[in-house]
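Hi L., both proteins are below.
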Amino acid sequence: MHYSAHHLADPRGRVWYTSGVKRAKDQGFRQPAEWAPHDAVWTAWPHLAEEWAEGLDGPRASLARMIAGIVALDGAGRPRGERVELLVTDATAEAQARELVGAASSGVRFHHAHYGDVWLRDTAPVFLVDGAGGLAAACFEFNGWGGKYVMPGDTHVAAWIAGAAGVPAWPQRFILEGGAIEVDGEGTVMTTRQCLLGGNRNPGLDEAAMTDLLCASLGAEHVIWLDRGLANDHTDGHIDTLARFVAPGVVAAMAPAAGDPNRDALEGIIADLRAAHDARGRRLEVVTVPSPGAVVDRDQTLMPASYMNFYIGNHAVVVPTYRAAADDAAVAAIAAMFPGREAVAVDCHPVLVGGGGFHCTTQQQPRARSKR
């Protein structure tokens, strides 16, 4: 299969808006687990030089390798994974991306769009499914990670993507980033108090109110609250750097390394997860991956490196590495969690300099049997 450039000039064109707010739970929709089959994954090409302290070449090369891993060409050059929907700013950026992605660009559909940075996990819609295979796109409000990084285009990209995907956009009138939530597809959501209750997203909402909103908007029944995230995390403790569902009732987390700057936080996460239960009443099984320890940028500033920021595709699991001693062990541990998928290790250090990882740059679109 081959996908040509897809131009959508109007960021709000082709969006099927609903009147008022629709909640997933009321409509029989839910966010599926990431390991459920995908039609596609949305990601974006870096273009804001001022947001990348060490330049654009490194992150572009890393994201090109991530895209190739997700597309997963077979020996005959046919994509085995899922279609990649890639946002680029213009024809020049598209040509550059095609060159770096190489042969795997046959499994990429390019969209010329107006967007901020690459963190579509947080700015794209959260796709929902119902029992009949229909799709909807929950479009949350976005305030630049609590007002820290406000970039032109980011507040409308969720509705834009919903329109490009031909999926009904359901506006959700509260602030939420996709990286702040992790679901098992069976009614359980994980998140952190540091992010959602820290006061810079939805001031005035307490834990009970936010629990109700999460369950209603994602089609869930139970929320597991962890306390805090990694040091120097720009996102204020996004769950996708801390703990991930890898199967129903099974959660992965990181075990701290010797001298780990995040030792207290990581040990607290493991203890809290072992004491938690999911929506079906199961006590969680916790499997651990070694932490990368202290990972720094060229100015020796500690960065929030995490092996939990992997992306689960149809064919592959793209695992971030950080030029750390624990890289090989972490990749092997994550590969063992997904025996039906290929573990693709990609250097994430240049992407982390910009504040995130591979999971942060992606938002999966579940497979649908019909479009609504």
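That was the first. Here is the second:
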Amino acid sequence: MPGHKGVGPLGIEALDITEIDGADELYAPEGIIAESEANASALFGAPTYYTAGGSSMAIRAMLLLALAHTGGVEDATVLAGRNAHRAFISAAALLGFGVEWLWPKAGATYHSCDIIAPDVEAALVKLGGRCQAVYLTSPDYLGHIQDIAAIADACHRHGALLLVDGAHGAYLRFLRPSRHPMDLGADLCCASAHKTLPALTGAAYLHVGSGLGIDDRRVKSALALFGSSSPSWLILQSLDACNPYLETLPDCLAAFLPELAALKERLKRHGYALTGDEPMKLTIKAREYGATGDALAEALMAKNIYAEFHDPDFLTLMPTPASAGDDLRRLEEALLAIPRREPLPRVAPPFRAPVRALSIREAALAPRETLPLAQCEGRVLAESALSCPPCVPIAVCGEVIDADTMERLRFYGIRACAVVQ
């Protein structure tokens, strides 16, 4: 294997190998993969493991590792920000741990969940020692970064590990000073190399705090539990090729980020309202400019510029140092050519906490039927309702679809739901 034998129409088939002699094995590396992961570990300053299954695979593995390390998965409880990626929900369904949510502030959207250390501390006190781990998303899809250092201190005072889905922030380690979660006190963290670094889609890292004392074999076993036995060597090669790039990234960021920051300031002077504090993300609050995020995205597409995400409220763009110069100029020209109009009223339904009828695992494994949304009120979700991107559930399996949830689902274009029979 592979059957193409190194030749084919894509022109990359010769690099697409598998576990032949000399190519090493991802889940039991002793050769070139072990050497490459050691190089990445030195660059990130923490034990670092490759995945070819994106951060989704790393999220499931780090939850297993954290809960097994703190006493076992059965009857475990994780305190999590509600804007968790669906990979967190699938991990709860597969592993069976309980989830207690940290909810967005009143009036917030489902995309973000601004969490401060006192909120975490209060929730941990309320749980009375029943919480083994706290799980946050930082940066989130709109570019908000949590105060990881303060939250980590709160977690550790109460005997809980801090796990961070840092899928959008692989580059944060290479800012000066570093803003990477592992440097700020997180115990485990994942990051998608392909989101902000020049790696192929599916390339990601799992970082494990050396202070936990979790050995390499245990980490590899957890990754293997959720990963393909035939990981893509093209993806692994792209991770290896990233290591020399990471050595130069501090200088690249030092040159690029002022250029991007200056663009953000010019857009604000022109009337665009921005949100988020992530330096390498540009998120526009479209309604304040008199448009929807969908309309702005359509105008950009006409200029062959594609947004990472758009919905009625927001437009998110993800420039990197590869966008320096002409790409940023084209983006600026396209955005400034869009006429500013009177701000549009906010119509997104505010987020309200729904009632939970079943655990995530119970609902995900229950018999189900799919119904038009109009017939779903009062039913229990069997599969989290979401759009991708951002892959953050608008409603989570096990919750009752009440009137507030119905309103949110309609607004974000959900037309049918899988519900428990």
